[in-house]
Amino acid sequence: MGSPLLRLFIFRGTYLGLVGVLSFVAWGCQNQPTGAPQPIPETSRVESRTSQLIGHIVPVAGAPPAIMMLRPHVALEISLPSELAEMDQYGRAFFPQLLVVKEDQVVRFKNSENELHNVNVTDESGATVFNIGMPILGGMYDHVFEQSGRYAVRCNVHQEMAATIFVTANPFAGIADREGRFSFSGVPYGSYDLIARRGVDQIEQVVTLDAAYVEIQVGIE
């Protein structure tokens, strides 16, 4: 799949009542999610003026869901989420099959069925991050991912079980729903790189948030 062309149309002003949007995940920001870190020259506290970004990305049949991220042009001091991110094992499957988390956020792996599993996590180079057995009916293991990137999750006992964890340093990130809808709330006014990623393909576009509501249509051809 070649690099897609991004067309981005920004409409400011009235909130159009788009429903069912994916809840955002708000986090602190230090580095890019992949590749060499790019230092940000200045730091500012989260401003009192915030925007709600509402968007839609064209879904692609047979493709994985799009990971949507905002990378600020000025560093923001935003705390890690207080809640744990979770990936469960049930019915010989991982739930969710795609999980987006922040660097240094705790991820809890669970086994909620009456069957033995393991959790084998490898990084993009294929190196094993950890491989842990999961006891039946309530087995749990917590892990902190310190480096951005894409991690493969498998159960060696049941080869059909597979999932992906995407770790990012971007302060706002989430997954578009099946219809391609996504939303970020409480985003401080300012300029951002809007990043859309499907599998190994990634597209970026600068957006400026300077209104209470900003609506974005992302088109991929």
Question: How would you describe this protein?
Answer:
By secondary structure, the protein is an all-beta fold. The protein folds into two domains: 6-78 and 171-220, Sandwich (Immunoglobulin-like); 85-168, Immunoglobulin-like. Helices cover 0% and strands 52% of the residues. The chain has no helices and 20 strands. The protein has strands spanning 6-12, 25-26, 43-44, 50-57, 67-72, 75-76, 85-89, 94-95, 98-102, 106-111, 117-122, 128-134, 139-144, 149-154, 162-168, 172-175, 181-188, 190-198, 201-209, 213-220. The strands form five sheets. Strands 2-16-5-18-19 form a five-stranded antiparallel beta sheet, with no helix packed on it. A five-stranded mixed beta sheet has the order 9-15-14-11-12, with no helix packed on it. Strands 1-20-4-17 form a four-stranded mixed beta sheet, with no helix packed on it. The model is unreliable at 1-47 (pLDDT under 50).
Number of domain modules: 2
N→C terminal distance: 11 Å
Low-confidence stretches: 1-47
> If helices are DSSP runs of H or I spanning 4 or more residues, what is the number of helices?
0
Strand share of the residues?
over 45%
Structural class by SSE content = mainly beta
CATH architecture of the largest domain: Sandwich
Q: Based on DSSP secondary structure assignment, what is the total number of beta strands?
A: 20
Element pattern in H and E: EEEEEEEEEEEEEEEEEEEE
Residue-averaged pLDDT: 82
Shape: elongated
Strands side by side in the biggest sheet: 2-16-5-18-19
Rg, Å, rounded: 18 Å
Per CATH, the class of the largest domain reads Mainly Beta
Which range best describes the helical content: under 10%, 10-25%, 25-40%, 40-55%, 55-70% or over 70%?
under 10%
- CATH superfamily grouping of the largest domain: Immunoglobulins
CATH topology of the largest domain: Immunoglobulin-like
Largest sheet: 5 strands, antiparallel
